[in-house]
């Protein structure tokens, strides 16, 4: 199978919004957006058949679940190390132009729901009884004000403000050719600047050093695709219908466990009404084994996608190990 072309960088490569949260739009209470980029869509019409699922164990709190795709997803600790490594690389790049880069303080906080705690909506009896559909109160981190930057310093850091993301290099090799080309007229202190600034260069150095780099979001896109397919699976549709009927018995007319607050017009997500609703929500999930059924079905879709994309995923894993070695070498 051909390797996926690495995605072009945005500012700080956005440090990959898809990586910074385990499954954007799926971990909260709302419904998710699409299943991931078209690039990760690997299913032909014949692949849409529902995979076989064995016995579905009774499960409730989804926070402790592990999925087949987990071995390819970058864990939080590694994401933090890669961010630190990128900050070092940005500073190294900025020094070439006579500037220094100080990384912003990272956000501090603990997610009591974990990576998968709200994958299928609220599922923890204790958290539902305490917070309803809301998040526990957290003290906002105190951040030092960003230092003011001059025009040249900003240009070196982020590149020209009118950059077209679609025109950016896909890997570091392309970026270096673009930086040294005659068309690049951005010069600071006698040196041509990277096309997307030091943030773009550092991101490519970590995530797309050459044309063989697998798109850093590829496993995440497969993860999202499996989740989207599972939502349309007849077994999940059936158990959601059973859950909805259970909720109706408690006086709540809601079609899906994803998006309950919006469906019921709950504005205070941790208020008394939300707590009462969330408690009934979790009880209905337990009654129909929604988490157990959905988890088994989604895992089956993940296994099928892993098998279909085995070569690309192996390359991704090898490249991730190389990234971590680079990050480790920069931490000393």
From TrEMBL:
<feature type="signal peptide">
    <location>
        <begin position="1"/>
        <end position="27"/>
    </location>
</feature>
<feature type="region of interest" description="Disordered">
    <location>
        <begin position="30"/>
        <end position="60"/>
    </location>
</feature>
<protein>
    <recommendedName>
        <fullName>Lipoprotein</fullName>
    </recommendedName>
</protein>
<feature type="compositionally biased region" description="Low complexity">
    <location>
        <begin position="136"/>
        <end position="149"/>
    </location>
</feature>
<feature type="region of interest" description="Disordered">
    <location>
        <begin position="128"/>
        <end position="168"/>
    </location>
</feature>
<keyword id="KW-0732">Signal</keyword>
């Amino acid at each position: 199978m051909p390797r996926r072309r690495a995605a072009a960088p945005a500012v700080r490569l956005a440090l990959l919004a898809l990586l910074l949260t385990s499954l954007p739009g799926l971990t909260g209470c709302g419904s998710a957006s699409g299943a991931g980029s078209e690039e990760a869509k690997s299913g032909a019409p014949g692949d849409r058949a529902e995979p076989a699922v064995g016995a579905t164990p009774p499960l409730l709190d989804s926070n402790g679940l592990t999925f087949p795709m987990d071995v390819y997803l970058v864990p939080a600790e590694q994401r933090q190390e890669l961010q630190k490594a990128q900050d070092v690389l940005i500073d190294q790049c900025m020094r070439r132009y006579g500037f220094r880069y100080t990384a912003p303080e990272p956000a501090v906080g603990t997610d009591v729901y974990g990576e998968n705690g709200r994958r299928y909506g609220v599922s923890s009896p204790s958290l539902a009884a305490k917070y309803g559909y809301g998040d526990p109160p957290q003290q906002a981190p105190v951040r030092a004000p960003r230092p003011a930057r001059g025009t040249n310093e900003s240009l070196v850091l982020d590149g020209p403000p009118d950059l077209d993301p679609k025109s950016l290099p896909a890997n570091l090799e392309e970026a270096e050719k673009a930086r040294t080309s005659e068309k690049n007229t951005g010069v600071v202190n006698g040196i041509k600047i990277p096309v997307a600034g030091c943030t773009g260069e550092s991101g490519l150095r970590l995530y797309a050093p050459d044309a063989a780099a697998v798109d850093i979001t590829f496993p995440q896109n497969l993860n999202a695709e499996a989740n989207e397919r599972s939502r349309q699976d007849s077994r999940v549709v059936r158990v959601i219908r059973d859950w909805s009927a259970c909720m109706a018995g408690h006086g709540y007319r809601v079609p899906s466990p994803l998006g309950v607050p919006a469906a019921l017009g709950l504005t205070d997500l941790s208020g008394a009404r939300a707590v009462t609703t969330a408690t009934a929500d979790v009880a209905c999930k337990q009654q129909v084994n929604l988490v157990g059924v959905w988890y088994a079905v989604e895992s089956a879709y993940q296994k099928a996608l892993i098998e279909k994309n085995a070569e690309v995923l192996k390359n991704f894993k090898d490249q991730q190990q190389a990234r971590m070695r680079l990050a480790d070498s920069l931490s000393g």
